[in-house]
Specification:
The complex is a heterodimer of chains A (197) and B (317). With 197 residues, chain A is an alpha+beta fold. Chain A contains five helices and seven strands, in the order H-E-E-E-E-E-E-H-E-H-H-H. Chain B is of the alpha+beta class. Chain B folds into three domains: 104 residues, Roll (PH-domain like); 43 residues; 132 residues. Helix content of chain B is 51%, strand content 14%. In chain B, the strands form two sheets. In chain B, strands 1-2-3-4 form a four-stranded antiparallel β-sheet, covered by helices on one side. In chain B, strands 5-6-7 form a three-stranded antiparallel β-sheet, with helices on one face. In chain B, helix 2 packs antiparallel against helix 3. The chains are: A alpha+beta (197), B alpha+beta (317). Chains A and B meet through helix 1, strand 2, strand 7 and helix 3 of A and strand 3, strand 4, strand 5, strand 6 and helix 4 of B. Strand 2 of chain A pairs antiparallel with strand 5 of chain B, so a sheet runs across the interface.
Chain lengths: 197, 317
């Protein structure tokens, strides 16, 4: 049987899987809920063979002996059958597909096929709030938080979040902290001046 | 080719830690797994047409969510309050006991692991770790996958006997490229040793301070706190480089929060004392010496953290 128990990785017996509810693992006794979908029974696709190029024919950028079948929709390089990566109805070359995850610079720009994103809004908020635990550090962290919030205001947020409240809150907190420091320094300076006078 | 901005709907379940969190979102044609490390998010897409199976297994899991951590801080609040509002402290202890019992029950009897299979991957969905959440998420996912793949018209269990599920090879952790390999991470380094030693020494010094207050003991305690902060920061660096295990980083975070919390507790306590004494005007902040009830709490907390650290250090690698 090919569906393993999550706990012990032993295969679950088919009579257990045939039940509508939970399948009990005979090895570890753990109860599993298993849902199998038709994709399990799709025919596996075999390796793609690229055709050899005849004289005078366009060849693949990475495989000069293979016949080109398409051009990369991003960089224009010719690709053979083996290299062609179909994605959302267009053809990409492998290097564009792996390295060229188009990272947008502004929030209005459409997103690419990204697998990671730096969260400047969260960073600004953390830099603004965490040093409050040891408040003298806010003298350094507040200007950094303000810089991060303002400089990267237009950078795209998380793929799944929409609101920019973190940046706004970070900027507000950083301004309060900077204001606090200015007030404190002015207070001490004035008191020192009054003391001398 | 850029994909247009598509709305994602959150699936039930979220795993939140101080540093990292994980969640699942459904898009138009795929499931998006989001792993957040506060400063950065990592995404993995599982297209509904590719999902072969989802397996949820009931296992005990002692995940400590932020809410439970906050509840664990209750003893400190109780200790502070018990000196002033005795009847309230009793209720707080009761609430803490009920919360702990509920957490143990849910962790033992209502927890699970959830694994998703495609032809080329086997992914543990870490945001789903409670049975109730798993059932809700599974109901939504089943519906979305069925819309794309259709449903079985015959008994799949017989047919599944001859099909291979997921990628070839044993189920094991597959590290993402660019991420530190957990196998290489160690339980302790010289930095973590310094960190734990300073915590333990600080606990001892603060206990001595409780018995005989002297200025040099306060100076030593401040110096030890500075060492703790510096070594905690270096622990973060070592963890980021994949040298240290995550447990020590969590302990460093807990220690920093504890030190910060105690500093503020001292300030709040001083303000209360001043108000009770009928003083007006600014309260003197005492950054160097801890006083009153704060000292035993600090020494006890530091000792507990140090003991937890020693246990983590000697866990088998």
């Amino acid at each position: 049987m090919s569906i393993p128990c999550n706990r012990c990785n032993r295969p679950l017996p088919k009579w257990e899987l045939a039940g509508q509810h939970a399948a009990l693992c005979p090895e570890c006794g753990a109860s599993s809920v298993v849902r199998v979908f038709p994709a399990l029974f799709y025919a596996p696709s075999g390796p793609v063979a690229a055709e050899a190029a005849a004289e005078g024919e366009s060849t693949c950028f990475d495989h000069p002996a293979k016949r080109a079948v398409a051009a990369c929709s991003r960089c224009g390089r010719f690709v053979c059958q083996l290299c062609a990566v179909e994605f959302k109805g267009t053809v990409w070359c492998p290097s564009c597909f792996t390295a060229g995850e188009h990272k947008p610079k502004t929030a209005s720009e459409p997103t690419g096929f990204e697998n990671s994103r730096t969260l400047y809004d969260s960073t600004a908020l953390i830099v603004a709030t965490v040093p409050l635990l040891l408040w003298p550090f806010t003298a350094i962290s507040a200007p950094i938080a303000l810089f991060l919030a303002v400089r990267y205001w237009n950078r795209p947020l998380s793929l799944v979040r929409r609101w920019r409240w973190r940046s706004a809150l970070a900027a507000a907190l950083a301004l309060c902290e900077i204001g606090g420091w200015i007030w404190g320094i002015a207070y001490v300076a004035l008191k020192a001046g009054t003391g001398r006078g | 080719m850029a994909e247009t901005r598509q709305p994602y709907r959150k699936l039930p379940g979220r795993r939140r830690g101080f540093i990292s969190s994980a969640s699942l979102w459904t898009g138009a044609d795929h499931l998006l797994s989001v792993r957040s490390a506060r400063f950065q998010e990592q995404y993995k897409r599982f297209y509904f047409r590719d999902i072969q199976a989802i397996v949820i297994t009931k296992v005990p899991r002692f995940v400590v969510p932020k809410g439970v951590l906050a509840a664990a801080l209750l003893p400190i609040a109780v200790s502070i309050l018990s000196a002033r509002v005795a009847p309230l402290a009793g209720w707080l202890w009761l609430a803490l006991a009920i919360l702990t019992a509920a957490w143990i029950y849910i962790s033992v009897a209502q927890s699970c692991t959830c694994r998703l299979y495609t032809a080329v991957s086997r992914e543990d969905l870490s945001s789903i770790y409670r049975m109730r959440t798993a059932r809700k998420a599974l109901a939504i996912l089943e519906q979305r996958v069925a819309e794309v793949q259709g449903v079985f018209t015959e008994d799949w269990a017989e047919a599944a006997d001859v099909r291979a599920l997921g990628p070839a090879g044993p189920a094991s952790y597959q590290a993402e490229p660019g991420r530190p390999q957990p196998a290489a991470a160690r339980s302790r380094t010289w930095v973590s040793d310094i960190f734990l030693a300073s915590l333990f020494a600080d606990a001892v010094v603060t206990t001595l301070e409780t018995r005989s207050a002297s200025s040099w003991l306060a100076d030593v305690s401040v110096a030890l706190t500075a060492v703790q902060i510096a070594s905690a920061i270096w622990i973060f660096v070592q963890r980021h480089r994949g040298i240290l295990r995550i447990g020590m980083q969590r302990l460093a975070i807990a220690a920093l929060l504890f030190i910060g919390g105690i500093t503020y507790a001292q300030i709040i306590g001083d303000t209360f004392e001043a108000a009770r004494a009928g003083k007006r005007g600014p309260v003197t902040v005492r950054p160097r010496e801890r006083s009153g009830i704060v000292r035993p709490i600090y020494s006890g907390g530091a000792a507990l953290l140090a003991i937890a650290g020693f246990v983590l250090s000697f866990k088998p690698e």
